[in-house]
Design goal:
It contains 8 helices and 14 strands. The strands form 2 sheets. Strands 1, 2, 3, 4, 7, 8, 9 and 10 form an 8-stranded mixed sheet that branches. It has a 6-stranded mixed sheet with strand order 5-6-11-12-14-13. Helix 6 packs parallel to helix 8. The termini are far apart.
Length: about 325
């Protein structure tokens, strides 16, 4: 893998910069608790999310309370009822109590892809503060490449990049990949030795031929990305036709396997919307769970959003959107 990334991307890395874990969730548990929490000298450090909403799985990865700090995004409204989140750099403050800056690219749940400029700006902030920038790249480039906008692969010695084999169609192998400075990799290796003895080898064994040949990148670009991009475009089209109300917005789908839907002025909490849809056999995830580090019950936006998975079969997606549209159109009409 180090040879492939060096050849294709020009990264100055070796095998000593790479660790394998039993899935990305495993890796983030290690990293959050290595870089944040209580330290031997009495200091307490936190994880900073400069852009919320963020991945729901982060919230329970900490070994203590008060681990996370997050910032609300700026919201850019786009044509055709779409919108996009951006990092609010004017409001962003990185105090001495921050141990790591963490972002995902693309983001689960929204499909947002931080621009190259945003990533470079965050990298500079992290360097200035002497802390790492942690990027969750589970859906990103160079593989599995489920990104529909322009985005350059990013890594340097101050970056911790986490990747996964799951989105290549190997979720059961639970193989996470961490690319970082040798000191971080050694710490992860030590943790793996204590907790797992060794990470599972099924995923690596399956993918070694694709990595050695470089086919893993071609597969991502020519098969995986177009497969999901077509599904995303169809889901957006069906939603726009089914819910014509101008208060309904879709985050610009730039990657990952989900659509992030914003029902501006929704008369009920998104948790209640979840309960109503579940009773009709449609499962979505209410949006308020995706804001770890933000405690503002008055901020309505976080209560007006849901995550919708578009990766099922076309028949199921059509049925699900019909159920959602019936409920939303009734609520807006009332």
């Amino acid at each position: 893998l180090a040879a492939l990334l060096s050849k294709e991307l020009g990264w100055d890395i070796s095998a000593r910069n790479i660790a394998l874990t039993n899935g990305s969730q495993n890796a983030f548990f290690y990293l959050f608790n290595l870089l944040a929490g209580e330290f031997a000298d009495g200091r307490k450090k936190k994880v900073l999310f400069p852009l919320a909403p963020e991945y729901i799985g982060y919230a329970d990865s900490a070994l203590a309370d008060d681990y996370f700090v997050a910032y609300k995004p700026t919201i850019e409204k786009l044509p055709d009822g779409q919108f996009k989140y951006h990092v609010d750099f004017e409001s962003l403050q990185v105090g001495d109590d921050i141990g790591v800056i963490c972002v995902s690219r693309p983001t689960n749940p929204t499909g947002n892809v931080l621009t190259d400029e945003e990533i470079e700006h965050l990298d500079q902030i992290a360097r200035d503060k002497g802390i790492p920038l942690l990027i969750d790249n589970a859906y990103g480039v160079p593989f599995p490449g489920i990104i529909f906008s322009e985005a350059k692969p990013f890594w340097n010695t101050n970056t911790i990049l986490c990747m996964s084999l799951s989105k290549l169609g190997l979720p059961g192998t639970r193989c996470g990949i961490v690319i970082a400075d040798e000191k971080i990799i050694q710490a992860i290796t030590n943790l793996s030795g204590i907790i797992n003895l060794a990470p599972g080898s099924l995923g690596p064994a399956i993918t070694i031929p694709m990595i050695e040949s470089g086919d893993i990148i071609a597969l991502s670009e020519q098969v995986v990305k177009p497969f999901y991009q077509q599904k995303a475009e169809l889901a957006v089209q069906l939603l726009r036709e089914a819910i014509p109300d101008p208060r309904f917005h879709i985050h610009k789908p730039e990657g990952a396997l989900f659509l992030w839907l914003w029902f501006e002025g929704l008369p009920i909490h998104c948790q209640e919307l979840y309960e109503r849809l579940k009773a009709k056999n449609l499962l979505i995830v209410p949006g308020h769970y995706f804001f770890p580090g933000i405690d503002d019950p008055e901020w309505r936006h976080s209560q007006e959003c849901i995550r919708l998975n578009y990766s099922q079969s076309e028949e199921l997606v059509r049925r699900g959107i019909a159920i959602l549209a019936d409920e939303i159109n009734t609520l807006y009409a009332g």
